[in-house]
Amino acid sequence: MSNILVFGHQNPDNDAIMSAVMFAQLKNQLNDGNTYEARRLGPLPKETQIVLDKWGIEHPALLEKIDAPAEGEPKQQIILTDHNESGQSVAGRENAEIIGLVDHHRVGDIETSQPPFFVVLPWGSSCTVIAYLFQAYGIEPTDAQAACLLAAMMTDTVMLKSPTTTEIDRGFAAKLGEQLGVDPVEYGKQVFKSRGAGDFTPEQMVARDIKCFNIDGKDLYIGQYETVDGAAALEQLDAIRAAMEAYRTEKGGDGLVLLITDILEEGSTVLMCGDTAVAQKGLGIEDKPEGVWMPGVLSRKKQVAAPIIAAAE
Ligand SMILES: [Mn+2]
Q1: pLDDT tens digits for 80-113?
Q2: HEC secondary structure over the chain
Q3: Interval between CA 175 and ligand 1 midpoint (Å)
Q4: 226 CA → ligand 1 middle, Å
Q5: Rounded to the nearest whole angstrom, what is the distance from the C-alpha of residue 75 to the centroid of ligand 1?
């Protein structure tokens, strides 16, 4: 019997936290003799906190790092959700044993010692994959679980508008919405609005949801700030640019791309700093001081990271 830690990526978004909390709950309900505890690798997003509090679900504790086991002791067992690349994971991950993964991203550098429980599907959110696992195990989500799953599915798919959205996402969203007596898109709008449009400093816009991609031996950071009012965010353009350069310098990254995604206008303004030649090539745009508006671009993974990675190959 072990105590297994379950967590999503650094700079957690709603899906990273909810997938960890929900998968830990599901595993505990399955009663396999182990205990599963959700953790977070960074601050709770505001919208996540609001949903957890509404349903009386305990906030996951912060996990700063994993230490090497004491001599003769086994490694800490972990399950990753919503990420798998070490650059996006916990500090000291090499000290742990990865026994599971529930994700919807490309698979990077991951190795296991035993046959793992890996469920990686190209759907709109990790919480869709978890909704599917509830169904596969024949467990009906409680209303609280349905709300957490649906909230994360709606933010990750930008209310089912992102091109990452699949028919499977629509199907589970409809089913969970029906259980809760809500329209999924309307529910998603409420979740987005609960974030508060003007609540973010330029530093938070850059750092709140940013991922590091190692492309051709260079570290390219790609951040995304989703808002219901992109124009208001861009009033702080100079401060945002300064925050981007400060973040890149602090992390020692080569380049940084920031998407200011307006979910109502359905597109993103792309800002860049540092060495972004591969990003400019992949996106087919130049680095302009005022940024470049890319209509229809809502998904970092599919419409930004994927073409940039492809451009490097
Ligand atoms: Mn996700």
Answers
A1: 999 999 999 999 999 999 999 999 999 988 888 8
A2: CCEEEEECCCCCCHHHHHHHHHHHHHHHHHCCCCEEEEEECCCCCHHHHHHHHHCCCCCCEECCECCCCCCCCCCEEEEEECCCCHHHCCECHHHEEEEEEEECCCCCCCCCCCCCEEEECCCCCHHHHHHHHHHHCCCCCCHHHHHHHHHHHHHHCCCCCCCCCCHHHHHHHHHHHHHHCCCHHHHHHHHHHCCCCCCCCHHHHHHCCEEEEEECCEEEEEEEEEECCHHHHHCCHHHHHHHHHHHHHHHCCCEEEEEEEECCCCEEEEEEEECCHHHHHHHCCCCCCCCEEEECCCCHHHHHHHHHHHHHC
A3: 20
A4: 14
A5: 27
Cα(229) to centroid of ligand 1, in Å? Answer: 22
CA of 48 to the centre of ligand 1 (A): 13
pLDDT band at 55 (very low <50, low <70, confident <90, very high): very high
Residue-wise pLDDT tens digits, 100-148: 999 999 998 888 888 999 999 999 999 999 999 999 999 999 999 999 9
Residue 289 Cα to ligand 1 midpoint, Å, equals: 30
